Write the structure tokens for this entry.
Amino acid sequence: MINTDWVNMTPHDIVIVNEEGTPLTIVKSTGTIRLVSETRPMVQFVRSMPVVPPPKFHELDGSVKEFFKAPRVIVSGIVGEWCTKNDIRKEVYGPSTHPNHTMRDAQGRIVGIMALQKYC
């Protein structure tokens, strides 16, 4: 049930489930988490409400060479978007957290997904 064909660079194990919620496979987190560096502009106030523009994402943190060693990687949505925008030619996937693709517990936390999404 544990899948070793994929490298999971998110902080959580990825549990793929069927429509009934039965786990089909688990991709364990490697503990090597890929993030994208970002800058956050200063807060401005609009009618006394703090407002910031969206963050600007820059470079992939950590070793890009290590990132490319794995044949297929699972990353966060932000890293997946960065890979798409930077024309990374690799099999990069992320968990599909669309409401139709997730199983949630009583508190609303995702406990399994039914699909991955492909970024590039």
Summary: The mean pLDDT is 86.
